[in-house]
Amino acid sequence: MGIVGIANAQDALPAGVTAIKAAPPSKDHPLQELYSGWYFRTPETQALQQDDFDNPGFLWVEKGEELWSTVDGKAGKSCASCHNDAATSMRGVGAQMPKWDAKLKRPLTLEQRINLCRKENMQAKEWKWESDQMLSMTAYVRHQSRGMPVNVQIDGPMKEWMERGKKLYYTRVGQLNMSCANCHEANYGKYIRADHLSQGQSNGFPTYRLKWQKLGSLHRRFKGCMKNIRAKPYKRGSDEFVALEIYLAHRGRGLQVETPAVRQ
Predict the structure, then answer these.
(1) With the CA atoms of 232, 233, 235 and 239 taken in that order, what torsion angle do they form, in degrees rounded to the nearest 10?
(2) Residue 180 a catalytic site member
(3) For residue range 57-66, what is the model confidence (pLDDT) as tens digits?
(4) 58-143: CATH, from 3.60.140.10, 1.10.760.10, 3.40.50.300, 3.90.180.10
């Protein structure tokens, strides 16, 4: 598919990455080439992600760094108590999420893993999915993988979840009778509602959206898309959204983590 009307994407890159496109991870992949959402943004929005000083998402990354070493809960621990320096211990973690948990016998998103640690290891109160604390910590942890390729596991017990997410991706829902694929596979690059449709890749989340005027989670974006097609959204952290997140990560394997990305 030809992509037109997108300026400057070939001339510059977001900070911290060396490429904004990648070859499909398999021959049967539905896309001929993978493009980061940054490729489809206006030059003004792209510029915000080219310099960390200008990137508003770094307010949450900095807050996450502060929370990393903040003691919380009855156990008197912080994240750093167990994991030490995040730049070392968390390097590559965000690129592999969601990840299978053998004890729980299910995949966990980064948000779910953080709350599990808070509950079991810190004996602290769990954070709400879209709270500033959770957004800050997920941004900080995933930022440690910036520039690394997305590499989610899709074999073994994860295969069933990936297939479930794939089914959701192609299922038409809502009053407009649309699926994720209708926009992000069949029509990416086209101009709609004063914006270019992207491939709907997840490598930049949590992402700062100008529309939101703050950082937001991938599951918030899922809910927004479902509302746009007049469908009843699933809840953040639901099995449906976890499966969809796994499938999206699979679709984008090879794209580099950009967190915190900036989008429109």
Answers:
(1) 100
(2) no
(3) 999 999 999 9
(4) 1.10.760.10
